Amino acid sequence: MKGTNFTEFWNGWQLVLAGLLGTAFGLPAIPFYTIGVLAPIFAEEFGWSFAVIFGGLSLLAAAVLIIGPFFATLIDRFGARLVASISLPCLGLSYMTLAASNGSIEQYYVSWLAIGIFGLGATPVVFTRVINNAFEERRGLALGIVLSGAGLFAFVVKPLAQLLIETGGWRVAILVVGAMPIFIACPMVLWGFARLPHTYAGTGPAPSEGLQGMTAREAFRSRYFWLLAMVFVPMSLAVAAPLPNIENILRSLSLSPSEIVQLASLVGIAAVAGRLLGGILVDRFWAPAVGTVILTLGAASCLILSQGHVSFPMACIAILLLGLTSGVEFDLMAYLVARYLGMRSYATTYATLYGIFVVGAFVGPSLFGYAFDSTGTYSGILKGCALLLVAGAATILLLGPYPTRENKAFA
Predict the structure, then answer these.
(1) How confident is the model over 23-61, as pLDDT tens digits?
(2) CATH 1.20.1250.20 for domain 10-410
């Protein structure tokens, strides 16, 4: 067993590294973890409300939900390497157009729509497909490592963006961040996804024949698909939606600016820890049980942050729990889709669930912004998020044992 595990990672480390950087500088990491830094600037410079600013994420969510499944068919037809290597530069260029914002909300939203459309080939759908095809015995850990890229990006980009804003202005910060998918992620994906045979790595077109699991039609009719949707919609609203607002949430708790910067950076560290810990746990334990525990911890985080005043140590605990929960979300979803629905139509089924997830994750920030604009506090909506997470923690257990058919594919 140990030799097999070592061989699996030895043969696939290039895929893991390329996927790690792809998720770090892909969608949704680039726009999702920078909008929180830019939002106060846009609000001050253009007089926009937070609900309007985070409305860009709603457009992005619509693009992922409506067009995402189409991109999934492109991945199956042309391969992850080609699709990702084209989409990453397009994502970077689209993001750079935000630097041209001049107070026109229409222009601002067009930039977000471009980010959503042209970045669809650089989402976790692409990179998890590669990893799920290449790994079996340590699939959860490999997914955790790859998907930790977003957490690493969150940890680095917030202080980096703040530094760039202070030295060169917010437009320079946007241009520098937009260059990262072009000059870092794209070359690594071209290199890493070319290192192993296409049929093993899942980097090229792969026929569905011989792959275990359901067809797309069967998956969409199965109870597993709809249970997963029922879990990840509240999870996306309750975990992903607060993250772009985290600086303002902490500011509303009367914490100092230096404390806010420290705490916001902790989200990335905790997310990385969540990715790795979640990957290790689902390889060893029943994944729905792992999900229940993690979602319950997320509910506790939301309850802490919903208080009117929170001490720095308690805020640290809440941020670590929230980051940990957010770190598990994507790899847990990818693992559960592969286990319960199989790999036969993975790109299509995962892309659809991912689109549903993104709707909550990207519409949620606007709801948070609206709640704050209306009430001056995040307390009520954070308490609602805690309830949603508790409901999701109970629902995920209804998935039941892993289907026998899928187990054959993982043996």
Answers:
(1) 999 998 999 889 888 998 999 999 998 888 988 888 887
(2) yes
